[in-house]
Each structure stands twice: as structure tokens, then as C-alpha cells.
């Protein structure tokens, strides 16, 4: 399903990129992000070279380019919203273009990393390099319960649609708002139950 491909983008492969150690790929991705961030605003040729390099690596890894592009487009509105603030400054167009390009390349780098590396392998690398245990545990729980929350939302939407007899855009927006509110309440209650269950089993923050 497209939902599963977006939430869990990794696809098993036998390419050289897939066979690289997760630590090496994580180091390369973080290094690429730092390079992009530190580049001057006018380094357009370097931006283009990085973009070509990312595409080349994606092709070499036989990654799901369509799924990667969809994930990038879903995240792009957040990037665009932040970059638009640069237009409020005098002569902010070059800054806007630079922020938009840098953010897009950084997102593409991390999307490529997750498309060629298992999330569990990335967590194992974080454990080995002694990233704070609370942060690693939070990432693991977030990844696990993201699927649970999406399934819960889909069940609530199906239940709402089965009880809706009036069609219309206003009704659809109202139903979506109600589902979002109920999902927030259920998420908070589930998080509290999970935390209490973890504490009962000896977990300490």
C-alpha cells in the first residue's frame, strides 16, 4: 500500500548502496547535510552537483524514486512555509531561493538514507555512538506507534463515513475536524497507558 511505502520507505535490495554499513551511510548523509548548510547562498552549481549526485545514488541503489518523490512533496510545504519568511526582508528573494534549495536537498538526502537503510539499523548505530538513550527510545516508539495511529485514524474515518448521510464539503471538513480531535484525545490516552505499562515493567527515563 502507498501508506506503508510512505511510512516505511525502506525496500530490501542487493545494490552496493544497500550493502554499505548503516554507520557509514549515516555518516555520509550527515556530512552531506552539513556541507549543504555551510555552502554560500550563491553556490548554485554546487547545489546542482549535489542534486545530480543524489539522483545517481538513488539510481544505483534502484530505490523507489516515485515513493521518494511523493515523500519529498509531502514535506515540501513545511520547507516552503519557513522559506517564505525570507521574502519579508528587503532583497529576500536570493535568501528565499537559497533556503528552499538547501532545505530540499537536506530532505532528499535523509529520504534517500531511509530508503536504503533499515530504521532498526539506524537506531542500532545511534545506540553504538552513545546518543542519549531517551532520544533513541523516543525515536523507536515514535516509529512503532506511527503505524498504530494511522490505522486508528483510518478506522475512525471509515466509522464516520458509514454514519454520514449528508454529502458536501462543509460536512467533510467538519467530520475531518472531529476525527482529528478524537484522534488527539485517543493518542494522549494511549501514550499515558503505554508510559504506565513501561514503568510497571521497570523502565526508567
Q: Can you characterise this structure?
A:
The protein contains 9 helices and no strands. The model has no long low-confidence stretch (mean pLDDT 81). It is mostly helical and 205 residues long.
Along the chain, the helix and strand elements come as HHHHHHHHH
- Sheet/helix structural class: mainly alpha
Radius of gyration based on Cα positions: 21 Å
Measured distance between first and last alpha carbons = 35 Å
Flag low-confidence runs: none
Q: Largest sheet at a glance?
A: none
In total, the number of domains comes to: 2
Percent helix range: over 70%
> What fraction of the residues are assigned to beta strands by DSSP?
under 5%
Question: Topology of this structure?
Answer:
Blueprint: H1 2-7, H2 16-19, H3 22-38, H4 44-60, H5 65-83, H6 93-116, H7 119-128, H8 133-162, H9 169-200
Summary, kept brief:
With 205 residues, the protein is mostly helical. It has helices at 2-7, 16-19, 22-38, 44-60, 65-83, 93-116, 119-128, 133-162, 169-200.
Considering the chains and any ligands shown, give keywords for the structure:
205 residues; mainly alpha; 2 domains; 9 helices; globular
